[in-house]
Amino acid sequence: MGNSQKQIPARIVAALGIYAFLHLITALFLPEGTVAGWIAGYILGLLAVIMHYLFSLFTRKVDDAHFAPVFLAGLLLRFLIVLSLFLVLILTEKFDQFSFTVGFLISYIFHSVNDVILLNKKLTNLSG
After folding, report:
1. Left if phi > 0, otherwise alpha if psi is -120 to 50, otherwise beta: which for 23?
2. How far apart are CA 94 and CA 92, in angstroms?
3. Per-residue pLDDT of the chain (128 residues; tens, 9 = 90+)
4. DSSP assignment, residue 29?
5. What does R_g of the chain's alpha carbons equal in angstroms?
6. Which of 9, 81, 109, 126 has its CA 20 to 30 A from that of 41?
7. Interatomic CA distance for residues 61 and 2, integer angstroms
């Protein structure tokens, strides 16, 4: 059981790979000026998940009594970082903002679902 908690489930890894592939295939069919925004949005959504994973690694030894406050503080911090990066990219970069926003939202929602699955798995392991 200890080994399975340290590894990302194979279904999540497969879903990430398939999603990245489909996202890039979709980019091939977009108009020329929108591809950079689409890819940047995907990368920003993926960055949110990477931050969650790193935060999880740093806080995995938090006791049950402190888990919720630490998790919520980390969630707020990650949200503020992603929001800041989103605003910086929207205001400074010269790519199509609509494709960036749509690419980001789709990526962020997809990766957030994976976050919830992993969080549920962790909480289930803690309670059992």
Report:
1. alpha
2. 7
3. 444 455 667 877 787 788 888 888 988 898 888 888 888 888 888 888 788 778 877 777 788 788 788 888 888 998 899 889 888 888 887 878 888 888 888 888 877 777 777 777 766 766 65
4. T
5. 16
6. 9
7. 13
Answer yes or no: are the C-beta atoms of 44 and 85 closer than 8 Å: yes
Q: How many C-beta neighbours within 10 Å does residue 106 have?
A: 17
Alpha helices in the chain (DSSP H): 2-6, 10-28, 35-59, 64-92, 97-127
Residues 6 or more apart whose Cβ sits within 8 Å of residue 125: 1, 5
The DSSP code for 61 is T
Q: Are 100 and 90 in contact (CB under 8 A)?
A: yes
